[in-house]
Design goal:
Bound molecules: flavin mononucleotide
Strand order of the largest sheet: 3-2-6-9-10-5-4
Largest sheet: 7 strands, antiparallel
Structural class: mainly beta
Oligomer: single chain
Order of helices and strands: EEEEEHEHHEEEEEE
Distance between the termini: 43 Å
Low-confidence stretches: none
């Protein structure tokens, strides 16, 4: 069998589907679901989100230069989808979803309490790429839910949060580990 070649398109999947919270005041608070997101630098810690300018959140984030990336889980899948199909122009998404806004440590945008990891970001540059504008941002704080921190090792038990991902129009649960970083070069233990 050969290959079928398609016209250029977005086909890098799976991706995270995160809830991005924004707004400097309670009246302005909003949540937008974003899949065009990722890490772009380790030191300094930097990430991006790409938004269509017509999104209600676009104007808020551009004006304030701040937002929070809230990681999502199976329990948050419904709210994640909902915040990605409704606009905050017409409704209060925190109120409608029952998600709880709590103060961040550095930025004015709120954290979503129910999310296991909240990443506070400050916008450094906006690249107008086309349909989407890329907000290149510095991570200024990461907040982790204590429930998932192992008491002995202090490690964050990511998998216990039941993270979800987004792949070509559908959400999936993750969860089954098939190897540790570097397992391909690690020597196998002898059978004895
Ligand atoms: C899974 C998923 C991923 C999405 N990813 C993006 C994205 O990366 N960028 C974007 O501009 N909109 C994205 N959207 C669409 C917005 O979340 C949606 O238009 C939302 O209603 C905008 O809300 P707002 O008008 O309150 O800002 C996504 C929606 C879903 C459901």
């Amino acid at each position: 069998m050969g290959k079928v070649t398609w016209k250029p398109g977005t086909m890098i999947y799976p991706l995270p589907a995160v809830m991005v919270s924004c707004g400097a005041t309670k009246e302005e608070y909003n949540i937008i679901t974003v899949a065009w997101t990722g890490t772009i630098c380790t030191d300094p810690a930097m990430c991006y989100i790409s938004l269509r300018p017509e999104r209600h959140s676009y104007g808020i984030i551009k004006k304030n230069g701040e937002y929070v990336i809230n990681l999502t889980t199976s329990d948050l899948a419904f709210a994640t989808d909902w915040c990605g199909v409704k606009s905050g122009r017409d409704i209060d998404k925190f109120k409608k979803t029952g998600l709880t806004p709590i103060p961040a440590t550095v930025v004015s945008a709120p954290l979503i309490k129910e999310s296991p990891i909240n990443i506070e970001c400050i916008v450094k540059e906006i690249k107008e790429l086309g349909s989407h504008h890329m907000f290149i941002s510095e991570v200024v704080a990461v907040n982790a839910d204590e429930r998932y921190i192992d008491k002995l090792s202090g490690a964050f038990l990511f998998n216990e949060t039941n993270p979800i991902c987004y792949s070509h129009g559908k959400y999936y649960e993750t969860g089954k580990s098939i190897g540790r970083f570097g397992f391909s070069v690690r020597r196998k233990k002898s059978a004895k």
